[in-house]
Every structure is written in structure tokens, then in C-alpha cells.
Amino acid sequence: MKNRNMTLGAILSALACFAFLPQMQAAPEVVPPPDGCYPGFTTAEGCNALQFLGAGAGNTGVGWYSLYLAGDSNFNTGVGAGTLVLNTGDSNTAVGAAALLLNTTGTQNVAVGTDALVHNDSGSDNNAVGAFALFENTTGTFNNAHGRSALEANVDGLENNAMGDLAMVVNTSGSRNTAVGDDALFNNTEGDSNVAVGDEAGNAVTTGSENTFVGKSAGAGATDTLSGNIYLGVRAGVGVGDEVAFIRIGETTPPVVYDTFVQGIYQRPAGPAPLPVVCGSNGKLTANASSRRFKHDIKPIEKGTEAILALKPVTFRYNSDDKKNIDNTEALDFGLVAEEVDEVIPDLVIRDKEGKPLSVHYQGVTMMLLSEFIKEHKKVEELQATVAQQQKGMEVLTAQLKEQAARIQKVSAQLEASKPAPQVVNNR
């Protein structure tokens, strides 16, 4: 602020010297008529306003040295002491002391407020509304600053939109940023393509690019080189580290428990190769991958799975949530009780931040049941192999018995055939 005031004071002092050095000034091309009424629908009111107007038309200069060097420029409006003093560009509007004071060739700029766009030289198509808005801008174009000191330090940044007091206040060369809210993107200097909506949103970023912050203080206090992240909600992403391509919705450490509702999912068909989405204890959503490349310390489940058979599946109904007017008491559900599982297999229990049982790792239950099924299946296979072997043995034994029976029958027939014929005794 001190340097800003000193700079402005020096400029105004130099301009004031013009009035005391008439011998060094060129003669005005047009002598102002009474009441400042110039040809070409041009109006001038104030000490040396439009003093050096040439063939320019449609200019209005009201105030001390307003549009002083207008020359052949057209359609400019300067209202306030020192507005558009050095201007030779067209279609500029400056309202407020020293607004667009140093502009020379810049065109189609709008500056409303004390010192708005004061240093602009050749930058064009800028809109600055508020005291010291776009104060340092010299060559930056297509910027919009609305609010006290919005984009104050911008020098050559392009296509920025800052709306709110001190929004993007220290930005120098960052481009294509959008900041809506007091202090939004406050510390950004060179970061590009950031979007911040909310008071103090994204105020820690300095050189990071392509981030989106929505909500009061979203991303506040985060590492200053964030890139490609999206933070939605009040204080979302507060205090996170140097992240790239993260999406965070909701406050990082909320003071209360939030419910999350997302429409357009329920009863909608899934796309190709869908994966179930799960939520970690830190709120991270993920679709768990099963590829070997994501795992380490892989070992087969060999022992301990028999404990799964001690679990007790139950039916139940969730309690109603009176605070949120949600009644779950009629919907029948199926599952396990986490406290009961904790007594049998603690590793299957998911715990809350206080270490209390919260839920059950049902995928783990499934894997343990699969392990037990495989074990039982192997037993069945072994039993079937034994039975098959026994069956084969029985078949062999049966064949042998049949063969022996045939032999016995053959021998019996031979013995029967070898018996002498019976003789008949004639008793007379």
C-alpha cells in the first residue's frame, strides 16, 4: 500500500509540473471553447482536460488533466482527476481519481475506482471496478476485476476474472483464472486456469494450476503447488499436502457427521466392466483393484478360516434417524453384528476413529467362506477318489467272484458227468 501511494504521488507530482512549464509545452491543437464544448461531440471540463485533443471524436474528459494527451483517440470517457492522462487509445472509460492514468495505446478498457488500472499501458479489453483494481496491470488483456484491490498486482496476466475484495490481489502473470469471493485465490501469482468460488477459496495456491475450489475456504492452507485438483465444499481440502489430480468433496475434518446424497445413480444401469465403489475411513472413494501389480506380501489362506463357521448371520432393521427425518425401521436387512464378529475374528471388523466396531469386512467374510469351501471341496474330491478306487476294487472283486463261480459251476458239471450210471436190480 505504501509503495502504491508513493508511486501515484510521484506520477501526479510530475503531471502537476506541466502547468508550471508552459514554455516547454506544444501549443494545443484545439483551443477549448467556453464550457469545454469541442467539435465532434466532445466535452471537456476541468483544468487541462482534453488539452491536446486532435481529430479525436466522442471523447469526454471531466477532471484535472483528464484525457490530457487525447490527440486523435476516439470514444474515451474520463471522469476524475488524472483519468486517462496519457491516453491515445480508443474506447476507454475511466471513472475515479487516476483511473487508467498511464494508459497509452490500450483500448476498450473500463476502470471505475481510485487508481483502477492506473499503470495500464497497452493492455486492452480489461474491466476494473473498485479502488486499486488491476492497479499494476500494464499489458494484460481480457481481465475482469470487480472489488477493492482485485487483481491489484497483475502485470501481464490474461483472461482472469476476479470478483471480490482482494480477489487474486497478488497475481502477476497467472492467466485464465476465475476467483469469486473476498480473498479468493489471494496468493496466486503465476498459477493458470484455477477456479475459486467462495471467500478465501484457494487462497494458499501461488503457482499451482488447473485447480477448482468451490466453497468458503476450500483449499485454504493447502500446499501452494497444487495442480489439477477439485475441492468442493466449505473448507474442503484444508491443510492437504502437495496433491495432483485429487477430488475432495466436503470439509477435510468436519465438526459434524454429514450424509451424502448423489442423484442419478440409483436404478441406473452400469457401464461396461463396472466395479463396486467402497469408502475408506478417511472418506476416500475407490474401486478396489485385484491385479497382482497392486499387491504385495501375497500368501494363500491356509489356516484359521474354520472360525468363519462360528459367525451368526442375522436379519435386522436399521434404527430411524429422527434428526434427519429418515425412517429405516421397516426395511429388512441381512448381515452380521460387528461386536459379535469382533469376539470371533477381530481382523474382519472395521472400526471407527475411536476404535469401536463399526462394520464388517464382508469381502473378507466371502474370501474366508471361499477358503472353507475349497477345503471341503478338496475333501469331497479326495473322498470321491477313494470311493472311485474302492468301486474299481469292488468291480475287480466282483469279476473275480464271477470267474470263480463259473469255474465252480464247470467243475460241478464235470463231476456230475463222471458219476457211474445207476443200476437197476431185478428182484424176482
Q: SSE order, as H and E?
A: HEEEEEEEEEEEEEEEEEEHEEH
- Counted by DSSP, the helix tally is 3
Largest sheet: 14 strands, mixed
How much helicity do the residues have?
10-25%
Strand content: 5-15%
Average pLDDT figure: 86
Oligomeric state: single chain
**Rough shape?**
rod-shaped
CA radius of gyration: 45 Å
Uncertain stretches of 5 or more adjacent residues: 16-28
Summarize the entry for a quick read.
With 428 residues, the protein is an alpha/beta fold.
Tell me what you see in this structure:
The structure is a single chain. By secondary structure, this protein is an alpha/beta fold. The chain has a domain at 301-414. Helix content is 18%, strand content 14%. The strands form four sheets. A 14-stranded mixed sheet has the order 1-2-3-4-5-6-7-8-9-10-11-12-13-14, with no helix packed on it. Strands 15-16 form a two-stranded antiparallel ribbon. A two-stranded antiparallel ribbon has the order 17-18. A hairpin with a 3-residue loop joins β1 and β2 (42-45). It is rod-shaped, with a radius of gyration of 45 Å. Mean pLDDT is 86; it is low at 16-28.
